[in-house]
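Side project, low priority. Logging it here so it doesn't get lost.
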Amino acid sequence: MPAMSSVMEDPALERHFKEHKDAVTCVDFNPNSKQLASGSVDKSLMIWNLAPKARAFRYVGHQDVITGVQFSPSGDLVATSSKDRTVRLWTPSTKGASTAFKAHTAAVRSVAFSPDGLRLATASDDKSVKVWSVHQQRFVCSLAQHTNWVRCARFSPDGRLIASCGDDGTVRLWDTSTKHCINCFTYYGGCETFVGFNSSGTCVASSGADSSLKVWDLRTNKLIQHYQVHSAGINSFSFHPSNNYLISGSSDGTVKILDLLEGRLIYTLHGHNGPVLTVAFSRAGDLFASGGAGGQVLMWRTNFDIKSYQNVLQQHSRRSTPDPPPHVADIHPRGPHLHLPKASAIQISPAVADTRSTDPLVVEFGQSARGTAASRQRDATVAETHTFQLPLGLPNGGTRSTLTRPAGGWMQEESTRGAAEPAWSQTGGRGRREEEERGPTHPLEVLSGHPSGLDSTLQHIVQQLDILTQTVYVLEERLTLTEDKLKGFLLNQSQVLRDVQQSGGRRRTQSEGTGGAPDSYAPTHAD
């Protein structure tokens, strides 16, 4: 019986999904635990409905790699970020409508909803974190003190803080009300790849390209745990809702499960072919998902969280260390020290075969990335009869619906960052050569049946409009700065003139009181 109990507490592979054509870069569970979203290098967003025999939805609209995905707290919207410099909001249903946010001038690396679902935080290679209003569809503010690419930004559970990290090796905490950076944790081991709060908001963790994972206590602003359990960079991690566990995915091809109360590694999961790029717990913590360079999404049953807290306390009471008993809101040990891998960690190497369900039927929405002239004409015909309006007053309503899969391979871009760049962006030479020969694609090419010459002209016009939009945005920022400086200058000049007038009046009064003539040099008015 004890052996059977131990087996039942081990994490188990529940399902796997394999409709992506390239590396899976991000995953997130719907708060209702009925859907799982994943984004990929193939530029598509997949919504996996977890009910048996349910259809899966593929949404196409981004023009480059999808780097981040997150469900809104209500579960009725999905936000995605992309290297195409945009953030999109989708309705995870058969309507498939989306709208785009654009104010970053470089690739957007992550996107996150605030706890109330009213705001978005995005991190970008333009070295800034930006905050957006979801329902008003407008840019709110920019947080810009990072000195290199910003990889990730997340809201705290109470929405009062934003944590961000990047290639400058820092983790910054921002006050969402004052927009000021209130704390900065610096680690000199290299770029920071991911950041996140625990569910109580008492701790923030960050992972690095140097394979380290660090946990800071925000109540004392001290590093309390430092794990070095992977043999390559960590690309993503996720806190269990109980705060007792943490999962991490690494370029070493494994998923690690850490017991934060005991401060040790307890499981190593194998199953991905190549780097693991993303991991995420469900909101209830009973499931977690992982995705990687192999293009598969693995969904696991947690199981190890079924231990009661009383059992955890009993385990701690048998320890020989003087650490006090743990508290639910605390992470122990309290002193900072390094946790190295131990041989006691359980190795799990599942045979990645989905024996519980067949591959779901995939219904595609949006614009195909490629296609022949005949397929483009067919897509345009289907699009004319499947136009959907975006709910919640979001504009750009009708995304066009097709029921055909994109033809051809998927493109990847050449990395200019070397080792600091995720593994999925360091490959794809053949795709780049094809892209250079073919030229950039645009939705207008797919949705029209016009000759290629007109398509090329329209693409050129759209590209020029994008450049003009960015130029106007930069000019607006500079104009705002100039106006602020001019206002400050005029206020200073007015104050100087008032001071001069007041001092001149005092000299005239004193001169009249003594019977003398007024000072000839005292100013009486401002020119």
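Brief comment: Residues 511 and 517 are 6 Å apart (CA to CA).
Revisit when time allows.
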